[in-house]
Amino acid sequence: MNAPESRPRSSRMRSRYLVLILFAVGMTIVGGLGIRLQGAVSGVELAPSHFQQRNFSFYEIPVLQWQITPIRRRSPASPLVTHLMANNLISVPATAPQVWHPASISRGLAGIEIADAMLLLDQLNLRRGDDWFWKRWTEANPQRAKVLWPVVQDLAERELYILIPALFERALDELPPTEFRDAIDQLLSRQYRELIVDMRAAERNDLANALWREATADFPDDEPLRVLAPDELAPDELAPDETRRAP
């Protein structure tokens, strides 16, 4: 008597299982598309010790930012950096880069976030047609290049990328090498003063004081810079010190 009822019940169970399976497949597809669109992460880093660019990418679970795939990295070749290294215009350790500064990062469809290191990378990658702009400039101006590149690398290693673009602009002026060094020093000391004033106006006094100490180490005879000394500075810190930058 009950046998005929077992067939419809079994059919209903199969239908439920089928619905669950289809639901699971649908959620998997939706989740996969969501990760594909919103979970893609890519970006660029810069090692200031080597002027090396490194591109990276991986996938993560959106919102939670849980990485779910290994990081893929690629370092594109740069004729400019190869030239700088071959001519000892930057100081490169024998070991692999240990410090990487973020230049940009992109998550899904949210757009690209740019970091300070991109201020240098934009110049290192600058081209005019097939030419690497600053490689051509370096080859045409070897004496000025000996002044420019060590200063740029020094600032990059201190993460003072914000001071770098003005140096490249000044490099385009036709100045003799000795005048160029003076022009670079004057430009940097002025930029330091302006940055210190801005940091104090923003009530970032610890950063302003750290910048002041770095700047006076580089430019101990800059009187307008010394006027910006922190109020709590010890008297012995006001004494002139040897410049950090090579003559």
Question: Can you walk me through this structure?
Answer:
This protein has 9 helices and 8 strands. The protein has helices at residues 3-38, 79-86, 118-124, 133-140, 142-157, 164-171, 177-201, 205-218, 223-226; strands at residues 40-47, 52-61, 66-67, 72-74, 101-107, 112-114, 127-128, 131-132. The chain is elongated, with a radius of gyration of 28 Å. It is of the alpha+beta class and 247 residues long. 51% of the residues lie in helices and 15% in strands. Strands 1, 2, 3, 4, 5 and 6 form a 6-stranded antiparallel β-sheet that branches. It has a two-stranded antiparallel sheet with strand order 7-8. Helix 5 (142-157) packs parallel to helix 7.
Walk me through the topology:
Layout: H1 3-38, E1 40-47, E2 52-61, E3 66-67, E4 72-74, H2 79-86, E5 101-107, E6 112-114, H3 118-124, E7 127-128, E8 131-132, H4 133-140, H5 142-157, H6 164-171, H7 177-201, H8 205-218, H9 223-226
Antiparallel strand pairs: 1-2, 1-5, 2-3, 2-4, 5-6, 7-8
